[in-house]
Amino acid sequence: MEEEHIRRIRKLNQSYAYAALQMHEAIAGTAGFSGTDHKYLGFLLERGQMTAGELSSLTGLTTGAVTGLIDRFEKKKLVKRQHGEDDRRKVFIVPDTEKIMELLAPLYQGFRNKSAELTASFSKDEIKIIESYLSKSVEIMKEITAGLSSK
Predict the structure, then answer these.
(1) For 147, how many CA atoms within 13 A lie in the half-sphere containing its CB?
(2) Residue-range definition of the domain harbouring residue 81
(3) Rounded alpha-carbon distances, angstroms, from residue 117 to 10, 114, 120, 130
């Protein structure tokens, strides 16, 4: 592949990442969160209940920072702390998925609609290529993140 193609794709990736950050920050602000809190709430939505330690490992945040994060979510009644049945010392963070979706879904509706229209404009073969590129990009980012996190 020519260096010019690589440069253009790299620039588009960078523009996409910046636009995504700006959109998520705007959505977060509208919902009453910081951009990072909003994204960490997404981890809870995606993965469901977990311990504070698991959330700490997933996000790279210290346990103290996770405690503050959970406190902020709990204050907004978006999560609750639940003691383990077998071990009362173990505390699970349980997201209130319905309440979170009630808050965030309307803020994403325009993006979802326009994204669906955009996706529908591509052929099945083009969609496979896009999926392949995005999946492989995600794997590269996870690999780089893991390498940096272990240092």
Answers:
(1) 6
(2) 3-120
(3) 25, 5, 5, 15
Residue 32: CATH number of its domain: 1.10.10.10
Q: Maximum CA pair distance of the chain?
A: 60
- Residue 148 in domain: no
What is the pLDDT averaged over residues 55-74? 91
pLDDT of 9-38, one tens digit each? 999 999 999 999 999 999 999 999 988 898
Number of domains composing the chain:
1
- For 80-111, how does the pLDDT look when each residue is reduced to its tens digit (9 = 90+)? 999 888 887 788 999 999 999 999 999 999 99
Closest listed residue to residue 40, CA positions, set 16, 70, 63, 14: 70
Cβ distance 84 to 92 under 8 Å? yes
